[in-house]
User: Fold this.
Amino acid sequence: MADVTIKALPNGPYLVEGDVTLLDPTGQAVVPPKRPFALCRCGSSSKKPFCDGTHSKIGFQAADAAPQTP
Ligand code: FES
Assistant:
């Protein structure tokens, strides 16, 4: 099993580390610009699905930590 982590950065993107394939809605592979890569969580990136740093400019405030129970 691949060792992949997705970390929610404080008031920022999801940082994806490891050997993972990112697919678009049609199932086509999307090549990240670099690895590890960051996925936009604020919804304001002009390079979705990747983070372009806009979250800092708009003062994005992420929700508190994810619930620990499924
Ligand atoms: S999280 Fe960085 S631009 Fe959206």
